[in-house]
Amino acid sequence: MSVCRARSLSLFGIDALPVEVEVDVSPGLPGFSIVGLPDAAVQEARERVRVAISNSGYKFPTKKVIVNLAPANLRKEGPAFDLPIALGILAASGALPAGGLEDAGVVGELSLDGGLRGIKGALSMAEGARREGLPRLLVPERDAPEAAAIGGVEVYGMRSLREAVEFLGDSAGISPAEPADEDGRPVEADEDFADVAGQRYAKRALEVAAAGGHNVIMSGPPGSGKTMLARRMPGILPPLTMEERIEVTKIHSASGEGHGALVTRRPFRAPHHTVSTSGLAGGGSNPRPGEVSLAHHGVLFLDELPEFSRTALEALRQPLEDGHVTISRVAATLSYPARVTLLCSMNPCPCGYAGDRRRVCRCTVGQIERYQGRISGPLLDRMDLFVDVPRLTRQELREERQGEESRLIRQRVSGARGIQARRQGSPNSALSGRRLREVCALRGDAETLFSRAVDRMGLSGRGHDRVLRVARTVADLSGEDEIAAEHVAEALNYRRSHLIGR
Amino acid sequence: MEDDDRTKYLFLSFLQARVGSSLVSHLGNLAPEVVLRTSVAELAGRAKISEKASRAFEELQRSFDPVRMQDRLAAKGIVALTPVDEAYPGALRSIPDPPPTLFVDGKVPEAASVAVVGSRKASATGIETARALGLALSERGVCVVSGLALGVDAAAHEGAVEAGGLTVGVLGCGIDVVYPRRNRDLFRSVRRHGALISEYYLGEAPLAWRFPARNRIIAGLAGTVVVVEAPEQSGALITARHALDAGRDVWAVPGPPGVRECRGSNGLLADGAGVLWDIPEFVDAVAQENRVPLAGGISGGAQPLPAGLEDTEAAVLSGVGFEPRAVDAVAKKSGVEMPEVLTALALLELKGFVSRDGVGSYVRRAMP
What we know:
The structure holds 2 protein chains of 2 kinds. By secondary structure, chain A is α/β, with parallel strands linked by helices. Chain A has helices at 40-43, 45-55, 82-92, 122-131, 144-148, 161-170, 200-212, 226-231, 242-254, 277-281, 291-294, 310-314, 317-322, 365-373, 377-381, 394-399, 406-424, 433-439, 444-457, 461-477, 485-492, and strands spanning 3-12, 15-26, 31-35, 64-70, 104-106, 109-110, 116-117, 136-140, 154-158, 216-219, 268-269, 282-283, 288-289, 299-302, 324-328, 333-337, 341-346, 385-388. In chain A, helix 2 packs across helix 3 (82-92), helix 19 (444-457) runs parallel beside helix 21 and helix 20 (461-477) crosses helix 21 (485-492). The longest helix of chain A is centred in the C-terminal third of the chain and has 19 residues, at 406-424. By secondary structure, chain B is an alpha/beta fold. In chain B, helix 15 packs across helix 16 (327-334). The longest helix of chain B is centred in the N-terminal third of the chain and has 18 residues, at 2-19. Chain A binds chain B through residues 198-201, 203-204, 219-220, 348, 354-357, 360-361, 365, 369, 387-388, 390, 392, 396, 399, 448-449, 451-453, 455-457, 474, 486, 488-490, 492-493, 497-502, and chain B through 120-121, 127, 150-151, 154-155, 180, 182-183, 260, 301-302, 305, 324, 326-329, 331-332, 338-347, 349-350, 356-361.
């Protein structure tokens, strides 16, 4: 009998590359082998495929079966080749007309009873299929709505191997999947800034950060509400565009966190401080996106920043600088997008109560210095706003009136982002060097005030640029073309305070 | 004869750096040859010497090499002063426990001196006061003595340096050791504007017990000691006690009641220390004869912003108190909305009406 081909796709990073599944069934001692750089999960497909074929009512050929996954130099992983292998075998043994497989991409994991399980990266697979010019893609039913969102390729959701065989036989009975109804899920986050009593200074700072894409460190004693504020940050960022939704969904789906539809809310990731370097930045021998990639186009929140391991934090430097993480392995180098707003929180000192009005700080000067020194300079350089969040008394909390809704803040933020996109095509946080000086030129009062501040507050070169960038964002928030003195003055509030010395 | 005396004092200084001062004060009156050449066993008959001390003593008698030490000091431009030297500060001769040798990097000013000491973790107000004192004293030609620690000490030195005045830093470690590292620039400026002084030879480590011991030198060098902010059981209080032992005046800056960082200094006031409630008054009291302001004072800085305050700024200023207050509290007290409060606070800070502390709270400055 001749060789049969099924076309499939393999996830590589967050992109899908075409893989051809060649099946040869020839006379000889019965056997079943898979070649073409398969990993353990692909090798185990032999058992799943054999049992699933019998349990679906077909006959597994008692001949020598060889499956080749081409191109042979690309490492294949995961169980998504189960379905194309099974279909290829059925076609080669005559249970399925070989022509049916020609114009369809097939991915899916088989269960022993012949049913199909969900796979990782369905959206990327659909994108790959479109790129390869495949008109049809067969995926497990669970993943069909997600994959259909890409458009340009007909996606069919399959419940079982049997259904797939029948569908490929006469194409009848099943219509292409529709993209998941996006409006079904509220874009509005459950957590709103209106719920946070007081802390109007911190809220304003986060508004400025959101408007300019700036990274923020919040410092304050335990129980001051830093985490509560951070969780509400995604809600004031502008809504995701379609392109961003697809990118975010691809990453989440590739790491197995997809939920069968497009991600509509900005991600918020808060890894625990014991996270490993590869957990944070991505990696592993079978590379997976890390927390920083899962937070792509959203917020990465590092609570208790000084408790994170230094090496893990160092790994954040590349994504903060370039917007992606590159992972190099012997087999290949791949890259995950990772453009995040970094939000960090820390206590002012190891006991947490330095400067608190009601609790006495018992840390020594040396302890405080060591604690603050744990954060590396290069990481601090990427932070634009430093915000002190004090603890409020019950009295103060009770007196506080209702805060502003996230929706209203988001409108201002979107406006400012729009101005930046038209002016320089990037958020203000990305400004540096000559471009910074052009965009943030100061005149008159603003200039006088700023040079005075540089003298009196001892701003360093980096501190200098930081104030300019933030002042630009403050001006954008109030919709003004020129940075005025009051914008510079507000920006000066977001500089770092020093507990010890000056 | 005199050389022998010098060598003796140098030797005693080393001994003191190892075993503390009690033994040394005992030996100070003995003739040089007795100290340098008598065996420990014999000395033990005349003075009570602990086993550890006698081991250190023997070790030192073996390794002591005055010529080489003098050479190393000279190479760094450091002078060693002993009580037999003319240049040994007169004020120190009168304290109960004068250091056998003073290592001096720079030139000890002959002007009247005031020591300004206080907490390393002082509040923004405390830091501000110390700096203002340093400035005001320098402008009247008074030398500012302190310990080059973080917080109040550093601020007092900085004030003196800013005014182009005289200042002396007394170290609790070897004369060429910079501790704490954070202050290394300040070490250099103090050296330029006066002197670094230590009773410890090159390279001696900053051991914890050496700091209380050096406080007696701070108190001894100054005619008046001011405690700015000090919790109970602090080094600043030790300095104050040394000052009283040596017959110096002690003043303290009053702090708010109940604040831990001010309990020590307020306690001094309760015990009858001078009340430093107004800096010009204090400066007049300690520097009656020095009426001529120094050249190159603060006027050299950036040009001041207009003194007048706008309405919003005045309103925000009314919301800032003498106790540190967070931005939100200032906004509520003054009734000004959030972004405007931030603008006004920065302007007020630049104009010198308020200052911001280490946790982002604002406090009114004593003197704009």
